[in-house]
């Protein structure tokens, strides 16, 4: 169950509630200044806590991920990033190179993202690569390059953080911290980004179930960070025709279970540039609140993920498709009768 506290309580009064939970035979986990999670429902404890002056509401919840669940939070979560509302009515477009290569390159790409109507620049400064001999990113220098691109365009930045002790560094530069698929269940890292008080985009693991994915999001939420974005980026299946299988089932299923916004990554989900645009369309049609894709002025020369990277013309066409489909699916205006 979730205990909602009255606002602006002192530590002493919060500890009074935690002590009451302990005396009732349970452990309470504080998930922010006004939220305590108790893993199990207990009707007698619920009744006694409801009498405390510090408690505003006690919500019994069946879900194993109470904070991510619609049981506790029925309304959709909206996340404001530099004036753009993720989860709002307009689809969020995040785009950029797999790896940040140079200042000139990332600024050119950021300008193309802005000109096409995009909202955030994506780019890897720290790169988890399958081979230890592949380019691993420029590190902090790459973050500085992204910051220059933001200064030039006003667009927000999303970039991946891979290690708990790098969270503070990456958070200094970016607007959204990205957790990659390989780190979906890196729990020390999830705890640290939860403490960072920056929006976090959590990618689904290569073989992660939807429940495991939402439980991973719970780790972030449990640290008091409510701004979590989920990203379906393809799962590993038996199919070899594409890099991964973009699981569009996950979009409506997650939306039925959780209030968190969900975007799709057709670049990694498919791994072949010719299929990225149709799968971006499919993701929006399935109800995703946005897309994240890889683009480059010359994809053949991209330092990583060249095969799945779009050029600027292809990206503009994708943005147009996404916006058209989103507009077509928007709730119809009520008829006005004379």
TrEMBL record:
Top-level EC class: transferase
EC number(s) from the headed UniProt entry: 2.5.1.54
Keyword terms, alphabetized: Transferase
Membrane-spanning intervals of the chain: none
Residue ranges that the Swiss-Prot or TrEMBL entry lists as coiled coil: none
DAHP synthetase I/KDSA domain sequence ranges: 83-317
GO terms assigned for molecular function: 3-deoxy-7-phosphoheptulonate synthase activity
Pfam families given in the database record: DAHP_synth_1 (PF00793)
InterPro entries: Aldolase_TIM, Class-I_DAHP_synthase, DAHP1/KDSA, DAHP_syn_2
Protein name per its UniProtKB record: 3-deoxy-7-phosphoheptulonate synthase
Organism: Alicyclobacillus fastidiosus
Phylogenetic lineage: Bacteria, Bacillati, Bacillota, Bacilli, Bacillales
């Amino acid at each position: 169950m979730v205990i909602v506290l009255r606002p602006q309580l002192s530590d002493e009064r919060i500890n009074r509630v935690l002590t009451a939970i302990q005396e009732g035979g349970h452990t309470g986990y504080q998930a922010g200044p006004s939220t305590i999670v108790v893993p199990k429902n207990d009707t007698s404890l619920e009744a006694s806590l409801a009498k405390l002056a510090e408690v505003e509401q006690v919500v019994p919840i069946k879900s194993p991920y109470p904070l991510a669940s619609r049981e506790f939070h029925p309304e959709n979560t909206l996340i404001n990033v530099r004036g753009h509302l993720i989860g709002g009515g307009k689809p969020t477009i995040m785009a950029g190179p797999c790896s940040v290569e140079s200042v000139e390159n990332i600024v050119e790409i950021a300008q193309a993202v802005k000109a096409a109507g995009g909202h955030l620049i994506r780019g890897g400064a720290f790169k988890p690569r399958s081979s230890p001999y592949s380019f691993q990113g420029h590190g902090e220098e790459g973050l500085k390059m992204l910051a220059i691109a933001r200064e030039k365009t006003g667009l927000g930045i999303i970039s991946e953080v891979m290690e708990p002790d790098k969270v503070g560094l990456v958070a200094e530069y970016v607007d959204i911290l990205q957790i990659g698929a390989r780190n979906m269940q890196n729990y020390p890292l999830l705890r640290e980004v939860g403490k960072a008080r920056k929006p976090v985009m959590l990618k689904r693991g290569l073989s992660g179930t939807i429940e495991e994915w939402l439980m991973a999001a719970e780790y972030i939420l449990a640290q008091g960070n409510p701004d979590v974005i989920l990203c379906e980026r393809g799962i590993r299946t038996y199919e070899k025709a594409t890099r991964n299988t973009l699981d569009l089932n996950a979009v409506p299923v997650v939306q039925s279970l959780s209030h968190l916004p969900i975007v799709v990554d057709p670049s990694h989900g498919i791994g072949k540039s010719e299929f990225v645009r149709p799968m971006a369309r499919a993701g929006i049609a399935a109800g995703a609140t946005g897309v994240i894709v890889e683009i480059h002025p010359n994809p053949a020369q991209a330092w990583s993920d060249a095969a799945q990277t779009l050029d600027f013309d292809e990206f503009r066409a994708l943005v147009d498709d996404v916006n058209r489909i989103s507009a077509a699916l928007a709730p119809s205006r009520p008829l006005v009768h004379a």
